[in-house]
Structure formats: structure tokens, C-alpha cells
Amino acid sequence: MAGPGLGKLQEWRRSTSAWQLRWKVVTRGCSLTSSTMVYYVRFLKSPRIQKHKADSISVSALICLTTDLGDSFLADDVDLAVTLVVDRTNTVLQQRTIRWQAGKRELGISLGPFRPPPSNQAVVLGIGAAGGSTSRSSRPHRQADNLLDRGGVPPVISGWSTPFGGSQPALAEKLVERRFSLQNQPDLRVWEETGNSIARHIWDAALASVICLQRATGGRAPAMPFLQGLLQTKNSNPLNVVELGAGCGIVGIALAELRPRCSVLLTDLPEVHEIVARNIASASPARKSVIDFRTLDWDAEYPEAVCSGEIDLILISDCTYNADSVPSLVRVLDVLVQGSPDAVVLVALKRRHESEAVFFDLMDAAAFGTLDRDTVPLPSSCAGEDPPVENIEVYAFGRRGRTHGGLRPQEKRSHSP
Ligand SMILES: C[S@@+](CC[C@H](N)C(=O)[O-])C[C@H]1O[C@@H](n2cnc3c(N)ncnc32)[C@H](O)[C@@H]1O
User: Fold this and answer.
1) Could you say which of 2, 91, 325, 342 is the most buried, measured as most Cβ atoms within 10 Å of its Cβ?
2) Comparing 38-181 with 204-411, is the CATH topology the same?
């Protein structure tokens, strides 16, 4: 693949729609698009402040609740808490609950008129699920989503704007911030673009990776003993981590925030540089952890050394969707692991297409076997049905014959569905 351009995205959407249609049939009318997806609050029109006479202002925005792929909208009613806070102090200026109605493709947000904050301060608009997915609860919106609350990915991922008004421009930037609470750590905060770029936003598999890393660093990952051993027993040792196809960088940044003495190198195509630099700049790494970025194109001639020293862990999240690019991805992995034979490769994927199975065949041919395997459920709200099965699959791979911890005999071959 030359790069994840819009043409590729459209082609991918077409094949995904066909795949979803098949799923709708096998799930006996329980619509996949409304029951087993994560929905992200996205700004279709960035928040804007309007000044009125008599020293009052109002705030407006246009949002939607859509999937990571942006191909379907939440088909359930859900109450959303809309919160306007003063930038930096987080003082709540305005809060109200509005309803996203099934069948809608967009929702206008309007707050005010009200008195502006003192001292010309900028404001930030946050929108997230108010309470239960269909209740009329007006419970205030939490400041961050919790990825460990339900044992899986939450159904609605909140969004926060850039600061606007006051000393900032009246219109917020075309960005949205995701905020996740991490155990015993400051919140994980990651910016993504509001547009259609594949690379510059967050994908469901990334959320599953963060969940697994959080469990493993906290010693609560019984299904991933190798990963847990790597992250825990070496807790006082430096850990060298490389992420391939990092996108906004959420997975590698989360690990650097969760694990001390972790050196994380995020890699991707040049087009992510701006958003990833922003996220690195606002990250809060754990003690002695560092985060860096460099360009690494799997299709380009392979650079001699990606990073200095042996790599302990390679992170890959939602990078196997395109069968055309999988051979070069596995080739890069193969080269990296030649120099670091004990490296663990953590791969999270959401199967969108049968052709993704080629990844497992190529990993097997490159002598990678499965060390750990886990699944992270996507939210399910399909009343009256058994929960439709759609999970993010998470694998820890290792090269066969690695010296630190072997492969279980029955798991020598990497997994197909
Ligand atoms: C679906 S996104 C996943 C992003 C991120 N890992 C996540 O889960 O949120 C796939 C990523 O793979 C990257 N990618 C695709 N082809 C690539 C290539 N040839 N070399 C490097 N990165 C590539 C894209 O730029 C994009 O960031």
C-alpha cells in the first residue's frame, strides 16, 4: 500500500459494509451497527463562541456519534452531558443534558446566552454519555472515560474541544481530545483530528491495547502472562518499546504513562507527525519514561537501526486491516526481531475482513508463535438477544526458539480464527 489515502479508506469502507451486512444476517436481525460498536463523539462543526449585547455569550457546535471507521452512527437513544468549563481551572460554567436520538446523523449543541468567564479566559466544551446508555439520567459527565469500568471498551467515547474564546480564537480547532482515567496515574489525554484521516485518529483496537497494557502493568492480566511478566518483573529495568503504525500515539503514550523506565519510540508515516508531536508534548510519562517519534514507512527501504539497543516490546494496533500492506508490516517485524530475538510483539486487531487472516499465515511463516492471547469485548446493547460476539483480539507473539520463555507446544502456530 502506498499510504492510507482516502481512496483506500473508501475501498475499505465498501468491503466493510459488505462484511457488516453478512454479520447482520448471522446475528438474527440484531443490527451490528447499533449493538457492538464503540461510538466516538466527533465535532462536525467545531465549538464556537458568539458575543451578544449586554455582556453575554453563547456557544454552539455540531456533533455526531460515529464509529472509528466513521461509516455508521449510533442507532440508540443516549443522553449526553454537555459541559462547558473554563480552560485550565476546569470550573464548570454550563452543563446540560441533551438526547442523541436513534436515526440521527448529527446533533446541534447550543448553550447560553450566559455571562462570560472573568478575565477573558478561554473555555473548553466536553460531551460524553450522561449515564446509562438509554436512561434519562442527568448525572454529571465525568471528566474522563474509564477503560476498566465494564471489563471492556465503553460504548460512547467522550470528546473535548481545544480552548476557544477569551484570548484564543472564537472557533475551536478541528481537533478532539479523548480523556481516559488510568489507575494511579494522571488521565491519559490524546488529541485526534475530527476529519476522515485513517492515521490521525484513534481506532477501537487501540483502546483494547490500552486496556491490556493497564491490566498487565497492574498485574491483572491472567490471560497474558508473558506480557504481564515482561511489564511487571522487569518493572525496575529499562524497557525498550517500538510502536508501528502508531497513529496519534495513544497506545505507546499510555504505556509510557503506566510504566516507569520505559523508552517508547512511536513510528508511522510522516502525515501523523504534527498530531503525534502534540500528544507527546502534552503526555505525562511515568518516572524515567520517555516518548519519541520517528517516521517509519513499512514499504520504504528499511532503515538500518530503528532505535539503539535491543527492543523488548513492539506494539501494533489496528494495522492489519489492509491485506496489501501486511507483507511489508511482517517484513519490518521480521527485521526488527532479527536484532532483538526475545522481543514480544503485541498485536490488537478488530477483524473487519476475512483477508486479514493473511497476517497470521505470514507471522507463522516468519517463525512467530503465539505467547498470549486475549480478547477485549466491544460494548453490546442488543436487548433480548444473546450478546453478539464481536471482540478485539489481542495477541502477544514471540519468535520461536526465543531464549526468555518458550512457546507453549499447542500454540506454536500463530492463530487463525
Ligand atoms: C487504522 S490506523 C491505526 C492507528 C493506531 N495504531 C490506532 O490503533 O489508533 C493504521 C495506521 O497504520 C499506519 N500505516 C499504514 N500503512 C503504513 C506504512 N506503509 N508504513 C507505516 N505506517 C503505516 C497508518 O498511517 C495508520 O496510522
Assistant:
1) 325
2) no
- Can you give the three-state secondary structure of 35-53, one letter per residue? HCCCEEEEEEEEEEEEEEC
Helix (H) or strand (E) holding 97: strand 92-100
* Amino acid identity, position 114: F
Residues 339-379 have pLDDT tens digits of 899 999 999 999 888 888 999 999 999 999 999 999 998 77
Amino acid at 195: G
pLDDT band for 183, please (50, 70, 90 cuts).
confident
* Domain range 204-411, CATH class: alpha beta
* Angstrom distance (rounded) from CA 126 to CA 137: 17
**Pocket around ligand 1 at a 6 A CB cut-off:** 1, 4, 198-199, 202-203, 205-206, 245-247, 250, 268-269, 272, 296-299, 317-319, 325
Report the residue among 190, 198, 324 best suited for mutation to probe ligand 1: largest number of ligand atoms under 8 A from its CB: 198
| pTM as predicted | 0.87
Ligand 1 atom nearest to 246, measured from its CA: 6
Name the residue with the closest Cα to ligand 1, atom 1: 318
User: Of 328, 339, 336, nearest to 362 (Cα)?
Assistant: 328
pLDDT tens for 188-222 read 999 999 887 888 999 999 999 999 999 999 998 99
User: What are the grid coordinates assigned to 379, written together?
Assistant: 460494548
* Sign of torsion over alpha carbons 199, 203, 208, 211: positive
Domain assignments of the chain as residue spans, ordered by start: 38-181, 204-411
Output the CA 384–ligand 1 centroid distance in Å.
37
How is domain 38-181 classified at the CATH fold level?
Immunoglobulin-like (2.60.40)
Residue nearest (by alpha carbon) to ligand 1 atom 2:
199
Of 1, 266, 269, best ligand 1 pocket probe by most atoms within 8 Å of the beta carbon: 269
Q: How far apart are CA 102 and CA 73, in angstroms?
A: 8
State which ligand 1 atom lies nearest to the alpha carbon of 250.
9
| DSSP-assigned states of every residue in 255-321 | HHHHSSSEEEEEEE-GGGHHHHHHHHHT--PPTT-EEEEEE--TTSPPPS-SSSS--SEEEEES--S
Measured N-to-C along each axis, helices 204-217 and 225-232 cross at an angle, to the nearest 10 degrees, of 60
Distance 265 CA to ligand 1 centre (A): 14
